[in-house]
Amino acid sequence: MMCSVQRRSCLLLSTTRRYSAWIAAKKQSKAGGSQAQQQQQRPEPTDVGRLFSDERVQGLLHKLTGVSVDKTFANKRISQAERPHYALMSVQEIERTREAMTKDALERLQMVPFVEPRDSRPEILSDDKEIAGFDKNKFVFTDITFDVTNRERTVVVREPDGVLRTATPEERDRMNRVYFERPYSPPFPPGVFSDSALTEALNSDKHEFVLDWACWYYEPDNPEFVNVARTVYDHADKFKKYDLLWATRHYGGLVFYLVLNHRIDGVLEHYAEQKKASEAADLIRLYRTAFTDWRKAIKTGDSDVQIIQDYVEQYCSPQSKLSSFLQGIAPELALGSQRSPQGPRKTPPSSRKPRPPNKGDGNKK
User: Fold this and answer.
1) Residue-by-residue DSSP string for 275-312
2) What is residue 21's three-state secondary structure?
3) Could you read off the pLDDT of 142-182 as tens digits, one per residue?
4) For residue 169, which phi and psi values (nearest 5 degrees)?
5) Which end of the chain is more exposed for a tag (fewer CB within 10 A), N or C?
6) Is 126 helix (H, G, I), strand (E, B) or coil?
7) Is 85 helix (H, G, I), strand (E, B) or coil?
């Protein structure tokens, strides 16, 4: 018994010393370096995050998202229902109320940040072989200081083999939920995020419900959130269920995800079926903002028809399904598609050969 107590005391003392030394080294590196060195050490934003936050991209995504007051304020399942409020209003009061509801709806349509998932690889702090085999379980040490944010909170793990490492994102989030709990945020992920339950929810057209819950439970850069969002986006694109996310805060992320992966043909066909030429042109503008390898540049005075026509000439054959769909949007394209385009015709984005993976491509949603 005395031996066990001594070994556990050795474990705690060693972990405390290593943890204190690691914190001191981090503080010294921050305080000792010059401002220029600190700026060099800060991780630069990824290309995907910078592109998503671009002013032009944000403007196009907001236009494509649209606004539907009826959909934004539709009845949803909540823990406690509110009593409805009825009032007699004049025409002017109704107009002011509608304007206020539209403004409120726009605030609720703020898009979820589209960022790269944070690194899930832990950092090895020390490897103490002298205390290897002290226990069969891991020991997790969490800084529970109240003035520290959950993202900056230090969480370290002592492995049974004596390795002391930083916590993974999943371990860090779980410890934050244990010590600083929030409503409907249990320590372990809800069952809806499991493969079978997630598939059942998506087959029941609960895409918005799944993404809303994922936004509440995970951080945007959590690898699990990225996996859930990717699954929902792929399902919506495969079964053409874009309207389920239209006019929600998740539609911009869906469109941006499809643009990054050269899969906009399905959305263009969707807009063509609904005769939405303006939305189709805005989607092409967004695609050309992300990828600039075009023969013709978009001019300020180019109309929606001209932009769609250029896309058809560059990426679609006259017999393709997408070409006929886009011609249905703008009848003027029928004349333009009969003449042969200048130069060799490029392959559609969806049929391009996969590019060699770049440094940041593997983490795209």
Assistant:
1) T-HHHHHHHHHHHHHH----SSPPPTT--HHHHHHHHH
2) helix
3) 998 888 888 888 999 999 999 999 999 889 989 999 988 88
4) -55, -40
5) N
6) strand
7) coil
- Looking at the chain, how many residues does it have? 365
Residue 283 CA, chain-centre distance (Å), reads 19
Report pLDDT digits (tens) over 13-62: 455 555 555 555 555 554 454 444 433 333 333 478 889 999 999 999 99
CB atoms within 10 A of CB 49: 17
Burial 203-229 (b: 16+ CB within 10 A, else e): eeebbbbbbbbbbebbbbbbbbbbbbb
CA angle, residues 264, 357, 361, in degrees to nearest 5? 60
Torsion angle of C-alpha atoms 67, 223, 259, 203, degrees rounded to 10:
-60
Bridge partner residues of 142 (DSSP): 155
Amino acid, res. 342: Q
Evaluate whether 316 touches 268 at the Cβ level (below 8 Å). no
Give CA–CA dist 341/347, Å, rounded. Answer: 13
Phi-psi region of 296 (alpha: psi -120 to 50; beta: other; left: phi over 0): beta
pLDDT average, residue stretch 274-280: 88
Strand partners, 48: none
Are 153 and 143 in contact by the 8 Å Cβ rule? The answer is yes
Specify the 3-state DSSP secondary structure of 49: helix
Annotated domain spans of the chain: 1-23+87-188, 261-365
- Which residues, listed in sequence order, are joined to residue 40 by a DSSP beta bridge? none
Which of these, 61, 53, 51, 49, lies nearest to 115 by C-alpha position?
49
| Neighbour-count burial of 264, counting CB atoms closer than 10 A to its CB (0-12 exposed, 13-18 middle, 19+ buried) | buried
CB atoms within 10 A of CB 48: 19
Whether the CB-CB separation of 239 and 266 falls below 8 Å is answered with no
Of the candidates 133, 123, 112, the one whose C-alpha atom is nearest the C-alpha of residue 167 is 123
Comparing CA positions, the residue from 331, 321, 231 lying closest to residue 268 is: 321
